[in-house]
Amino acid sequence: MGDSRNLVVLAVVRVKPGYEEVARQELVKLIPPTNREPGCLRYQMHINVGTEYDNYMVENPRLYMFYEIWRSREDWDKHMEM
Q1: Rounded to an integer, what distance in angstroms lies between the CA atom of residue 9 and that of residue 3?
Q2: 9: Cβ–Cβ under 8 A, 6 or more apart, which residues?
Q3: Which of 47, 56, 61, 63 is surrounded by the most beta carbons within 10 Å?
Q4: How much is the pLDDT for 1?
Q5: Measured between alpha carbons, how far is 67 from 43 in angstroms, rounded to an integer?
Q6: What is the rounded CA–CA span in Å between residue 46 and residue 64?
Q7: Three-class secondary structure of residue 3 per DSSP
Q8: Cα separations (Å) of 76 from 36, 38, 47?
Q9: If 0-12 CB within 10 Å is exposed, 13-18 middle and 19+ buried, where does residue 60 land?
Q10: How far apart are CA 13 and CA 45, in angstroms?
Q11: Which domains are assigned to the chain?
Q12: Which residues form the ABM domain (predicted)?
């Protein structure tokens, strides 16, 4: 009997200073085709909107997080080969 558990991936991308806008544009382009890949159940991009520091929210436009759910490790492996 096979393992029917999904694979959940939390990936963090740190962008080099000066590349914030181009990185955002390119990373957003990944979302639709990745969500259409076989085995992809969810692929979401999140940008750091801030952390509380001294009662202020500090934005970090260089920090992205991808929340991914794949049907199996094999599906994710195929995604990573692309």
Answers
A1: 17
A2: 66, 67, 68, 69, 70, 76
A3: 47
A4: 44
A5: 6
A6: 6
A7: coil
A8: 13, 9, 22
A9: middle
A10: 10
A11: 7-81 (3.30.70.100)
A12: 7-82
With tokens 């200073």, the residue in question is: 17
The Cα 54–Cα 39 span in angstroms is 43
Encoding tokens for residue 63?
Answer: 């920090």
21 Ramachandran zone, left/alpha/beta (phi>0; psi -120 to 50): alpha
Rounded average pLDDT per 10-residue block, the chain, 82 residues = 80 92 95 98 87 64 92 96 89
> For the chain, what's the residue count?
82
Q: Which amino acid appears at position 27 of this protein?
A: L
pLDDT at 43: 98
Query: How many Å apart are CA 82 and CA 72, to the nearest integer?
Result: 16
Q: Which of 13, 7, 5 is nearest to 65 (CA)?
A: 13
- Record the pTM: 0.79
